[in-house]
Write a structure and sequence with these properties.
The complex is a heterodimer of chains A (328) and B (250).
Chain A: H1 9-15, H2 19-34, H3 39-61, H4 70-85, H5 91-113, H6 118-138, H7 140-143, H8 168-189, H9 192-202, H10 214-240, H11 250-263, H12 268-288, H13 293-307, H14 311-326
Helix pairs in contact in A: 3-8, 3-10, 3-11, 3-12, 4-5, 4-6, 4-10, 5-10, 8-10, 9-10, 11-12, 11-14, 12-13, 12-14
Chain B: E1 3-14, E2 17-28, E3 32-36, H1 43-51, E4 58-63, E5 66-67, H2 73-78, E6 81-83, H3 96-108, H4 122-134, H5 150-163, E7 168-172, H6 180-191, E8 198-202, H7 206-212, E9 215-220, E10 223-228, H8 230-235, H9 237-244
Parallel strand pairs in B: 3-8, 3-9, 6-7, 7-8
Antiparallel strand pairs in B: 1-2, 1-4, 4-5, 9-10
Helix pairs in contact in B: 3-4, 3-5
Classes of the chains: A mainly alpha (328), B alpha/beta (250).
Chain lengths: 328, 250
């Protein structure tokens, strides 16, 4: 075979849109019409999906373990909340401010986080998150503490679409923001930059030996992921017009880690599908059994980790591969 | 001939253990230079010092007249100093084509490009395919690296380094663990590299070393024992005693 004869279609296919992706993105509009009574839950799913996507960018693609992503979620939530409270309630301005504040703190703390290996990173991210939680808890004059930030008022999106009681505007707003940021993340992971992140995750010692500035790449993706988490936090504040210290709580960071493992880290759709699965299961299991619903989620997680290490996405890929082999 | 790579009084200590002791080495441009020595002689440590994988306690590394002692690994690679590893350091879950394209992209400065898909970087992909053709890896271009036989993985190890277009290539036991037939093929490939690429080779297989190298440096206990052309090294009694044993007496 000559180099010119090499079929490059597998490489092109990796970045091309698959029909299943189009089908997937038809689900949010379909859900709007099929489940009009669940728009609040569906908005929460979109927000959480964006938050999980932020963790996927650093953990799934670059191999940076974190138990403190809620720090950026919370910063974004408070940034948007403060703006809304003091008369700057334009939603897009709030998103920009949230991304800026979370991204800036992400950039600054990345130099601490990226110094060590996995366990160090886990502890430093957790530590930063805990410090921010306690700071927000202490500064009640600014944050409202456990009572939350009161008096947030949101202006209509583009001056035309007001947030309504039924959550219709909130739903479309969160879904569109999620979709746009998903597109951006999809571009990124399929680019040479994204490939270099995968390279860092798979063999961090080799990357400098082919000329890659590993630290710079990790700082960049950590900062970007922080901005994503910040935007997710801002969406929560804007759509609920409320923010309390809960946005910085440890359980948020742990929960998105669980969701990502469930869905399949290192796959953008894994993050999205894991979120849908978790949130829907959470909603219905807690309805059926308010006290012990976590038992079933825990059991599912154990089964997934033991028998499907790449999560729901891994199971899906294996099923498709099996079907492909059986096809004539 | 002018030196392309030099070390001046290079020292590396791990606690009380001196792994590299006052090593001053000079590698001429275009050379086929081998670094030999018994196990624990400090050969890999020296490569690690040259490439910036380790920081020396004292001494300097000079690349094309520039002191690169305190430059990071990736900065030395940008200046043309590239290495392979004794134990494969590959991207197990990437395809062979993706791995080599990644290395080409880093060299061409596309590594920061986050907008255009990888496949849209036609020049980088074509160059990677060309290199795979040269190394007879085209048939496995779309295979995941982890699925390949060890000998072919060794070839990818070299492909990643060559994709960085080295001016000085440091090969750390490239034939380690490779079956004899495949190691000959591997060395034939290395021997075909143009003279613009200076090669410093660490290798335990003396037959390959004496067939390939035009100059040999012998390292013992972290220090430089001697350096000369292969014919002289082969006759050097000290070398026979510390390293070659009976192999050359036969």
């Amino acid at each position: 075979m000559t180099p010119a004869a090499l079929d490059l279609s597998p490489l092109r296919r990796a970045a091309a849109w698959h029909p299943a992706e189009f089908a997937f993105w038809l689900l949010p509009p379909a859900a709007y019409f099929l489940f009009p009574d669940y728009l609040a839950l569906l908005s929460q799913i979109a927000i959480t999906a964006l938050f999980v996507l932020s963790l996927d960018l650093i953990l799934g693609y670059a191999g940076i373990v974190s138990l403190g992503q809620a720090a950026f979620f919370g910063l974004g939530a408070y940034a948007a909340g403060m703006l809304g409270k003091y008369g700057w309630g334009d939603p897009l301005l709030g998103l920009a401010a949230a991304a800026g504040v979370a991204g800036l703190i992400g950039f600054v703390t990345s130099f601490l986080v990226l110094r060590g290996a996995d366990l160090t990173r886990l502890m430093v991210t957790l530590g930063v998150s805990m410090m921010l939680f306690e700071a927000a808890n202490k500064m009640t004059d600014i944050t409202g503490g456990v009572d939350g930030l009161q008096g947030i008022e949101m202006k209509p999106i583009f001056g035309a679409f007001s947030f309504d009681l039924y959550g219709k505007t909130a739903y479309w707003y969160t879904v569109i923001v999620l979709f746009l940021l998903f597109l951006l993340a999809r571009r990124l992971v399929n680019s040479p930059f994204g490939l270099s992140l995968r390279g860092i995750k798979q063999n961090v010692l080799r990357m400098p030996a082919i000329g890659a500035p590993v630290h710079g790449r990790l700082v960049t993706i950590y900062t970007l992921a922080a901005a994503y988490a910040g935007i997710a936090g801002a969406l929560l504040t804007q759509t609920t017009q409320f923010a309390s210290v809960d946005v910085l709580a440890f359980n948020r960071s742990a929960e998105i880690l669980l969701i990502l493992v469930l869905g399949g880290s290192g796959s953008l759709y894994g993050a999205l599908i894991g979120t849908v699965f978790f949130m829907v299961a959470h909603h219905f299991l807690s309805d059926i059994n308010p006290q012990y619903w976590q038992f079933w989620l825990g059991a599912t997680l154990v089964l997934i980790v033991l028998f499907a290490r790449d999560g729901i996405m891994g199971l899906g890929r294996a099923a498709v591969a099996r079907l492909g082999r059986k096809a004539p | 001939m002018t030196a392309v790579l030099e070390t001046r009084g290079l020292v590396k200590q791990f606690g009380g253990f001196i792994a590299t002791s006052d090593v001053s080495l000079s590698v001429a441009a275009g050379a086929r230079h081998a670094l030999i020595g018994p196990n624990g002689a400090g050969k890999t440590t020296l490569i690690n010092l040259l490439t910036g994988f380790l920081e020396p306690n004292a001494g300097a590394v000079i690349l094309k007249g520039e002191d690169v002692t305190h430059l990071a690994q990736h900065q030395r690679v940008k200046r043309g100093l590239v290495r392979t590893f004794q134990i494969n350091r590959l991207f197990a879950d990437m395809t062979v084509l993706e791995s080599v394209t990644l290395s080409v992209c880093e060299r061409l400065g596309y590594g920061w490009n986050w907008w255009r898909p990888l496949a849209a970087h036609g020049a980088a992909v074509d160059e990677a395919a060309e290199l795979l053709g040269t190394l007879r890896l085209l048939d496995v271009a779309h295979e995941k690296t982890r699925n390949l036989a060890y000998g072919r993985q060794r070839m990818i190890e070299i492909a990643l380094a060559l994709a960085a277009k080295p001016q000085v290539l440091l090969l750390d036991e490239p034939a380690a663990g490779v079956p004899t037939g495949e190691s000959r093929e591997l060395f034939d490939t290395i021997a075909r590299l143009p003279r613009e690429v200076t090669i410093l080779l660490i290798e335990h297989d003396m037959e390959l070393v004496f067939r390939f190298a035009e100059r040999i440096t012998v390292l013992v206990g972290g220090a430089l024992l001697t350096e000369d052309v292969p014919e002289v090294i082969a006759k050097d009694k000290r070398v026979k005693e510390v390293y070659l044993g009976e192999a050359l007496h036969d």
